[in-house]
Amino acid sequence: MITENFLPVRVHVREEAEDFRRLSERFGAQWTPTILMLDPSGMERHRVEGFLPVEDFMGQLGLGLGRIHFSAGRFEEAERQFREVVTRHPNSDAAPEGLYWAGVSRYKRTNESTALEDTARAFQESYADTPWAKKASVWTKKST
Amino acid sequence: MEINWRRDADAAIEAAAAGSQPVLLDFSAAPM
């Protein structure tokens, strides 16, 4: 997952002390571990601060890839990536966030409001007690 | 799986830009 999709770069607080000081200031990294996912232009698209178990961390990597696709306007790839987070890491904190952004990506690609309504409905069945479900609740289609 | 971390951060970030590749940038204090 990492080497297939990212160029992995490590800056160690002691081993690369000068780089660490300069780059941590540049990117606002104030704690270790802090892991940033940068798009090819060097812009931060996703951040993980603090340790995570492997399953959760892999989910966060998936979110980061999705955000990189999303920011580049590759909404189909972004949606695929976000849905993969949900299916591969369903018990991670990344899953509801992935479900939310999958819906947004689909909406950005199709401009169809059903993309958001379907997402709101999906949150009524899964991850209902998460902040992402609250955010999606505004998309619930009102019955008339 | 062993990850071959680049340690030359500036050069690596430049190389990623040249190759249109995303970067995973790890600020670490883990024992080496």
Strand-helix topology:
The complex is a heterodimer of chains A (144) and B (32).
Chain A: H1 2-5, E1 7-12, H2 17-27, E2 34-38, E3 44-49, H3 54-71, H4 75-88, H5 94-110, H6 114-125, H7 131-137
Antiparallel strand pairs in A: 2-3
Chain B: H1 9-18, E1 23-28
Features:
heterodimer, A: 144 residues, mainly alpha, two-stranded antiparallel sheet, 7 helices, B: 32 residues, alpha+beta, 19% strand, elongated
Please estimate the helix content of chain A: 55-70%
Taking all Cα atoms into account, the compactness measure Rg of chain B is 11 Å
Global outline of chain A: elongated
Uncertain regions of chain B: pLDDT < 50 for 5+ in a row?
none
The proportion of strand residues of chain A reads 5-15%
Rounded radius of gyration of chain A (Å): 17 Å
| Oligomeric organization of the protein chains | heterodimer
Describe the largest sheet of chain A.
2 strands, antiparallel
Biggest interface:
A-B, 36 and 26 residues
Mean pLDDT over the residues of chain A: 96
Helix content of chain B: 25-40%
Q: Quick check: average pLDDT of chain B? A: 94
The major pleated sheet of chain B works out as: none
Order of helices and strands of chain A: HEHEEHHHHH
Q: Determine the number of helices of chain A (DSSP H or I, runs of at least 4 residues).
A: 7
Number of helices of chain B: 1
Q: How widely separated are the two ends of chain B?
A: 17 Å
